[in-house]
């Protein structure tokens, strides 16, 4: 069975960092975008393999929203 899981990817001077806001503590890193994508997918699969089907349903059913806000500085 497959599940869609939200991830956030951040790039910094050292490479890429990814985490899932739905799965507390599930994170990974990589030198390239492709590497971090492969690594976070593996981390999510390992994380989910430790949960029951009910726990998985609860985790992946969380509503995650992202947006941008404009702020003014004085």
Could you explain how this protein is built, in words?
The longest helix is centred in the middle third of the chain and has 16 residues. A three-stranded antiparallel sheet has the order 1-2-3, with helices on one face. It is built from two helices and three strands, in the order βββαα. It has one domain: 2-Layer Sandwich (Double Stranded RNA Binding Domain), CATH 3.30.160. The chain is an alpha+beta fold and 74 residues long. 18% of the residues are buried.
Rg over CA atoms, rounded to whole Å, is 15 Å
Question: What is the CATH topology classification name?
Answer: Double Stranded RNA Binding Domain
The residue ranges in which pLDDT falls below 50 over 5 or more consecutive positions are none
Strand runs, count? 3
**How are the strands of the biggest sheet laid out side by side?**
1-2-3
Total count of helical runs of at least 4 residues: 2
Question: What is the domain total for the residues?
Answer: 1
- How far is it from the N-terminal to the C-terminal residue, by CA? 52 Å
| CATH architecture grouping | 2-Layer Sandwich
In the CATH scheme, the class would be: Alpha Beta
**Mean pLDDT, rounded to whole units?**
94
> Sheet with the most strands?
3 strands, antiparallel
Concise summary:
This protein has helices at 33-48, 53-60; strands spanning 8-12, 15-19, 27-30.
Key features?
single chain, alpha+beta, Double Stranded RNA Binding Domain, 3 strands
Question: How are the elements arranged and paired?
Answer:
Blueprint: E1 8-12, E2 15-19, E3 27-30, H1 33-48, H2 53-60
Antiparallel strand pairs: 1-2, 2-3
């Amino acid at each position: 069975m497959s599940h869609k899981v939200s991830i956030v990817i951040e790039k910094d001077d050292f490479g890429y960092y990814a985490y899932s806001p739905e799965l507390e503590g599930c994170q990974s890193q990589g030198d390239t975008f492709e590497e971090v994508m492969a690594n976070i997918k593996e981390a999510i699969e390992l994380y989910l393999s430790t949960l029951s089907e009910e726990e998985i349903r609860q985790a992946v059913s969380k509503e995650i929203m992202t947006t941008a806000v404009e702020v003014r500085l004085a």
